User: What shape does this take?
Amino acid sequence: MQKTYKYILLGLCLLTAGACKKDWLERQPRTILLEEQVWNDPKQIVALLANFYDRLPVQTGLQDINNNGDLDGRIAQWRDMANFDDAMWSGQSNEDGRNNIPAYGFDSWRLWNFSYIRDINLALENIAQYGERLTEDQKKQFTAELRFLRAYDYFELVKRMGGVPLVTKQLLYDYSGNATPLQVPRAKEEAVYDFIASEVDAIKDDIGNDGNVSRANKYTALALKSRAMLYAASIAKYNNLMPAPINTPGGEVGIPASRATEFYTKSLEASREIINSGVYTLYKVNPNTGENFYEAITKKSGNKEAIFVKDFLTPQKRHWFSYDNIVRGIREDNLGSSSVTPSLNLVESYEYLDGTAGALKTRTADNSDYIYYTNIGDIFANKDARLYGTVIYPGTTFKGLPVGIQAGVMAWNATRNAYDVVEGNDLNTTYTDGKTLTGSSGPHRSIQEVSNTGFYLRKYIDAGARTSTRGIQSDIWWIWFRLGEVYLNAGEAAFELGLTGEALTYINAIRERAGFGANSLSTLTLARIQNERRVELAFEDHRLWDLKRWRIADKLWNGSVSNPNAMVYALYPYRVVRAGDAARNGKYVFVKMIAPRFRAPRFFQLGNYYSSIDQAVINNNPTIVKNPFQ
Assistant: This one.
């Protein structure tokens, strides 16, 4: 037995000696990456950047456009598109509260994602500390990209919250029992915008990625500056024109009026640099102006208008937006469709190509009778092509299929000398004459997942085969920045600076792409610019923020049922049944009404201009000043 132990001991000694000789005990683990390995490997850094891009806060409406794995319980904040005046909710009734919002909560649109800022700061410090084997160009590129993402996030914070703590390095606790050094107070609102501008200026010439629209480049950074400086300028001007400007004593909310010109100038300069670069062009590939505008948003191949997008390239990242918002009559699955449906309010914002106002003509001048249309789509003839590219309306097609939109019939009652309104209890029904009563896509007053307004979304809806099914879904990208917005930013900034000729050049270029003649506008007003932004950028999540920065949201959405801007309206088409009257029988008439499922006027309070800060944040950091009215 003793001899056996001796042999075992000898073997262990030999094994230990051999292992020590080969540094066996000091071998690096295969499943753990050290800091030096991560921050000197460009592939590892790119993978980390992909995570940061994915975590960027998407603007209100599409924060979680991709599915989280649970079809019925998935988070889908794109539904917020139905919370304003450009659309309403026509989907399942468990979301019908979007049509009955007594007032927007003070916590609406709140963002306080400083964990994201912390992670970016850590990455920046690690590249500087450990990335000695990276080339200087690689260091510049990765550092610039991270700083862009941080600046973009600060813009998303400041436009919601006002001034927030400016934290550009890790905050490390020293376990002393004193947390005061970690309690960074809110910066002034103007200081956050200054930070964004200075970051863009510092990095724009270091950031590459030309041609990759899902990663930032020089012009992405300039587009951020174009937009952010326009917001800052508008707040500086219009907040101070309010009867009682919204501000705090320390400037955490509110920007001095004296800075408006400076911010407008910075926005215009950034916009000019993008436009004059020639890198991007307005999309004008399709000769059909309506289809062209639709493709300007959805077309990925050869689209030189897109500057920066959130893409959905893998099956795991495809999204449900088309599934949930496809036209009811052509949906490709038994479930889902027709949730966010555009309002008549939006549709009438699109002018006629002769420059007249966009109100649809449904009644005679003396209001004594309907206007009768031979074809159901004739009422939309000669409209701004951006309407077609944004909204599916009666008489149009999608995926090569006709869209059956008809609410019912107007049957002439000779006894009453008036029309009887007849509507079907279901969709795709026929009247006593054997012809259509209610279309396969409605509209309908009460059926779920069918338009309650008479319109459907086209913008961002995927026209590919089976893309509105659970099995395939859609990879349509979400556009963060495109050249069309930059033109509008430039036009507005130039107008505010008194450069009306230059402003007209930009605005007219946008309108010409939409089917208007060259130089269709010879004069310009702020109201005209505001409407151009509404129709060009509808459902791209600018409406709320534009109304906030112009300080008119509380006036348009004032909670009054007598205010047409606060209500959501619908347009219901009817086929006329009037035997013996060749001028009217078989024609189509239209009725404007408050959407039947819409319950409460939109009510935006002064306290909604800045989102409230969660009390837990204030408890952890007593230096944080609350926002006004909260």
Notes: Confidence is low (pLDDT under 50) at residues 1-22, 61-76. The radius of gyration is 29 Å.
